[in-house]
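FIELD: query
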Amino acid sequence: MENTTQPVTSLPRIGDKAPSFKAVTTQGEINFPEQYKGSWVILFSHPADFTPVCTSEFMTFASMEKQFEELNCKLVGLSIDGLYSHIAWLRTIKEKIEYKGMKNIEVTFPLIEDISMEVAKLYGMLQPGESTTKAVRAVFVIDPEGIVRTMIYYPLSIGRNFDELLRVVQALKTTDEFNVAAPADWRPGDDVIVPTAGSCGVAKDRMESKDHTCYDWFFCTKPISKETVLKAITK
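FIELD: result
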């Protein structure tokens, strides 16, 4: 694996360019994030192959891959294991594991080999308080321009909420498309938050608008139908 950037001493931050690297994966070599330009990407790490929580996560991600693809979002996994371990584990998942109605699950998205821990270090996936040899469950949502838009970290012992990861991508695309914000627990079809008024006159006009609900000058919402949102953010 070839690291194409200078070593960094801090974690990537929201709004930063995603650190670049080249690596071997179960789907061949990748040049990240350059080859994903034009697509959203979820880069995520797991502690180790052949572990139960990770197995449940990979089965869930693989079963939801089509939903992410409809959002023009690619999946890329990573752990500090070798390629042959990855291949053997994914074969075991497909041939032997049945969980929550999921069976014969084939993982077709890339799983990065990171024995050297270079990528894990580049993205701050190693948390010494948890483990110095296993990556925590980190999630990076990266936009089509290669910018980090969301970061979520989970400890080794807790599996991720994959409905939430799907919601995050939906919300990011919606807020970009409509220049709005997403309130707590937002889902497509829920009201969205409109930008804060910049003057008293704008605030008054907004509060009197028929399609806005204003709770005060700084907090106004408006409806956007689920159909309109999904048409805008899906292929």
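FIELD: remark
The chain is about 30% helix and 20% strand.
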